[in-house]
Specification:
CATH class of one domain: Alpha Beta
Order of helices and strands: HEEEHEHEHEHEEEEEHHEEH
Number of strands: 13
Helix content: 40-55%
Strand order of the largest sheet: 6-5-4-10-11
Distance between the termini: 199 Å
Low-confidence stretches: 10-27, 29-41, 47-93, 103-107
Number of helices: 8
Structural class: alpha+beta
Mean pLDDT: 75
Shape: elongated
Largest sheet: 5 strands, mixed
Strand content: 5-15%
CATH topology of one domain: Glutaredoxin
CATH superfamily of one domain: Glutaredoxin
Radius of gyration: 55 Å
Length: 342
């Protein structure tokens, strides 16, 4: 029995011994790996700890700004420092800073219309050419009561109408033309010529039913500067629109001294109005301003874009006049009652 047991042990010992030695070998290898891993983990832990170490304080003198690149030097982001030239563009030289563009002040538009200048004097020094091509001044022309008619000779509408209307009413004026009064048509178109003025005069003189003296109706042309000087002194505002003009329709009565005494509006002045205007001009007497009367009686409606009769203002004025008359009547009646009877 013992022999059999001994034989069994001898036969099985190599197989038992081998696993034990292999196990020891494996344990040694695992121990080595564990030691290596522990060393690696320790190194990683040290590195992680190093990342959490507090950074040294910044230099406050330099501020929080990023370092500035030198001229032409590329920054960390790859852009060249603004205001500096890169090496590739160094050959172009410095470019001048463009000067600020200054826009000229807009020219004010000339107002269109009439600014009445009653009692003021016309520009006597303004120079024109008459229908014969002779250079004259307004002081030389205006030597008697004068009806000044601002027109332009190529106008096919209102200018032609107003001058045609004058040919119809001038024979009815109760004054002697060329002596007691005269008419002067002044063109505000600087492109009109004395030749065109002579043509206009011949046409309108021929259209009248009676013989009108040559010096009774003058036609003047001039350059832009003198035209503006005269028209501004008359309060006549106009503006060129292409080949035509925007302008009011009015004539002015001027005294022999050049004083403006009356404005007559419309394309068809009456012979009576012309007679009165020339008479007032001869006496240097300023006439009634029709424009001021109309401005008092009418008010402009901006919504309807029209003039409306100012009923309240006229009614109020009428009531005040009636009350004034009644008050004066009561005062006079009271005085009569207090007068003792003889």
């Amino acid at each position: 029995m013992r022999s059999a047991l001994l034989v069994f042990i001898l036969l099985t010992w190599p197989s038992v011994a081998f696993p034990q030695s292999a196990l020891h070998t494996a344990r040694d290898a695992a121990a080595a790996v564990t030691a290596h891993d522990h060393s690696t983990a320790q190194q990683a832990d040290e590195a992680l700890h190093a990342e959490h170490v507090e950074a040294p304080p910044k230099d406050h003198a330099a501020g929080d700004r990023a370092p500035v690149a030198a001229p032409g030097e590329a920054t960390d982001s790859g852009f060249v420092k603004p205001g500096a030239m890169s090496a590739d563009h160094a050959g172009h030289g410095e470019q001048p800073v463009p000067a600020e563009h200054v826009h000229p002040a807009p020219v004010a538009e000339t107002s269109i219309g009439v600014t009445e200048k009653l009692g003021e004097f016309i520009a006597a020094e303004a120079r024109f050419f008459d229908e014969g091509g002779k250079a004259v001044t307004m002081a030389e022309i205006v030597d008697k009561p004068t009806i000044i008619v601002p027109v332009y000779f190529s106008c096919p509408n209102v200018c032609a109408i107003i001058q045609s209307s004058l040919t119809a009413v001038l024979p009815d004026v109760k004054l002697e033309p060329g002596v007691d009064f005269q008419v002067v048509s002044v063109s505000f178109d600087d492109t009109d010529t004395p030749t065109l003025a002579a043509h206009q005069k011949n046409n309108y003189m021929a259209a009248m039913d009676f013989t009108f003296p040559e010096n009774g109706w003058r036609f003047l042309t001039g350059d832009e500067a003198n035209i503006r000087k005269l028209m501004d002194s008359l309060g006549f505002g106009f503006r060129r629109e292409g080949k035509d003009f925007l302008h009011p329709v009015v004539v002015m009565a001027v005294s022999p001294k050049g004083k403006i005494v009356r404005y007559l509006y419309g394309t068809r002045p009456l012979a009576f109005d012309l007679t009165m205007a020339a008479t007032e001009a001869d006496k240097e007497r300023i006439g009634l301003s029709v424009k001021r009367v109309l401005a008092y009686c009418f008010s402009y409606d901006p919504e309807g874009k029209r003039y409306a009769f100012n009923f309240m203002k006229i009614t109020g004025t009428g009531i005040l006049l009636i009350l004034a008359v009644l008050l004066v009547s009561l005062v006079l009646a009271g005085r009569k009652k207090r007068t003792p009877r003889n």
